[in-house]
Amino acid sequence: MLIHETLVRERCFHGVPGNSKKRVLERISEMIAEQTPDLDAEDIFSGLIGRERLGSTGIGEGIAIPHCRLENCRNSVGALVRLQEAVDFDAIDGQAVDMLFVLLVPEEATEAHLQILAALAEMFSQADVRERLRLTESADELYKAAVDYDMEQI
Questions:
Q1: If DSSP codes are grouped into helix, strand and coil, which group holds residue 112?
Q2: Alpha-carbon torsion 51, 52, 55, 57, what sign?
Q3: How far apart are CA 25 and CA 16, in angstroms?
Q4: Which end of the chain is less congested by CB atoms within 10 angstroms, N or C?
Q5: How much is the pTM?
Q6: Region 31-59: what's the mean pLDDT?
Q7: Residue 66: is its pLDDT beyond 90?
Q8: Which helix (H) or strand (E) holds 48?
């Protein structure tokens, strides 16, 4: 499954405020729930925080990929987030995080979950892609940059 299959324009958020990892995940959970009526903000937040307790999803270079499986999730749901200011995310390299891709998948979606995470890790490992995403000035530009990258991979 490709990134653009999980991401829609309405789940790209630019300039999201938050002064801590917990507050950022809470706010993003609310924003995703507003765009995805089948999902509950508290369930999303609980799943994401539960996953963070197992180990930080901060992969380095200012990037985090918070993810979890949810009981009421029918399809993989992605959200691309550019924070207003970087926050401490306990990332593996110690850098604060300013860009997140939140991934929610159905409980039974083991293989799809891993494929999407691998695609995201590959995308964010490329310095030019990170720069392109960070140079965006709106949610529309953020969405276009992510989907353009994804379509180049086909």
A1: helix
A2: positive
A3: 11
A4: C
A5: 0.94
A6: 96
A7: yes
A8: helix 41-54
The dihedrals phi and psi of 64, each to the nearest 5 degrees, come to -135, 150
Q: Are 146 and 12 contacting, i.e. CB atoms less than 8 angstroms apart?
A: yes
Q: Do 100 and 66 form a contact (C-beta atoms < 8 A)?
A: yes
Known catalytic residue: 67?
yes
- Nearest-10 crossing angle of helices 139-152, 127-134: 160
What are 77-88's pLDDT values in tens digits? 999 999 999 999
Residue of 4, 14, 67, 113 with catalytic role: 67
User: Exposed, middle or buried by CB within 10 Å (0-12, 13-18, 19+), for 93?
Assistant: exposed
Residue 30: CB atoms within 10 Å? 13
Task: Identify the helix (H) or strand (E) that includes residue 25.
Answer: helix 21-35
